Amino acid sequence: MVEEPKSAADCLQATREVGFDEFLRADRSDATACPLPRQADSVKTARDVTRSTLKSWGLSELSDDAALVVSELVTNAVRYALCPPSRVEAKPITLMLLRLSPHVLLAVADPSDEAPTPKEPDFISENGRGLYIVETYSQCWGWDHLNRGGKAVWALFSGTTA
């Protein structure tokens, strides 16, 4: 599935060595972090932030696929953060984009410790296709626990530098 296994592995290893928690706190020119409220209109905000960030990095060609994937990840984060009501309601969902040339890693951090579980896609149902879409449109995806609690679900994209 991964076109450039060594490069993708290097990017993911670098992210894990520093940790998503560190990237979420850092003020970096190659990263964007955007806290999102736990509500449905956060999906549009996440798509807009993704598109504008990729455009500013000269990676507009990734915008459509990345916006679709981020929509699915934020939708899942909002859905599972709201039902059942969580004990960690004060913690927002956070969208993060990280440029690790030639790759872009996008991640959605949420306060839930529940692992994302892919389902067999039901193409008739309106639900249950999210992680299938993430897998289809990204090079690879996965998730990591956050030191502060919760998790970050990520997807890796390969782009060409402008």
The main β sheet shows up as: 5 strands, antiparallel
The CATH superfamily appears as: Histidine kinase-like ATPase, C-terminal domain
Order of helices and strands: HHEHHEEHEE
CATH class: Alpha Beta
Can you count the beta strands? 5
Outline type: globular
Number of domains: 1
Query: What's the total helix number?
Result: 5
Ends apart, CA distance between termini = 24 Å
Strand order of the largest sheet: 1-2-3-5-4
CATH architecture assignment: 2-Layer Sandwich
How much strand? 15-25%
Evaluate the radius of gyration.
15 Å
CATH topology, by name, is Heat Shock Protein 90
Mean pLDDT: 79
| Contiguous uncertain segments of 5+ residues | 1-7
Structural class, by secondary structure, is alpha+beta
Instruction: State the helical fraction.
Output: 25-40%
Explain the layout of strands and helices.
Layout: H1 5-18, H2 20-25, E1 31-36, H3 42-56, H4 63-82, E2 93-100, E3 103-110, H5 130-137, E4 140-145, E5 151-158
Antiparallel strand pairs: 1-2, 2-3, 3-5, 4-5
Give a structural overview:
- There is one protein chain.
- With 162 residues, this protein is of the alpha+beta class.
- It has one domain: 2-Layer Sandwich (Heat Shock Protein 90).
- Helices cover 39% and strands 22% of the residues.
- It has five helices and five strands.
- It has a five-stranded antiparallel β-sheet with strand order 1-2-3-5-4.
- A hairpin with a 5-residue loop joins strand 4 and strand 5.
- Helix 3 runs antiparallel to helix 4 and helix 4 runs antiparallel to helix 5.
- The N terminus is likely disordered.
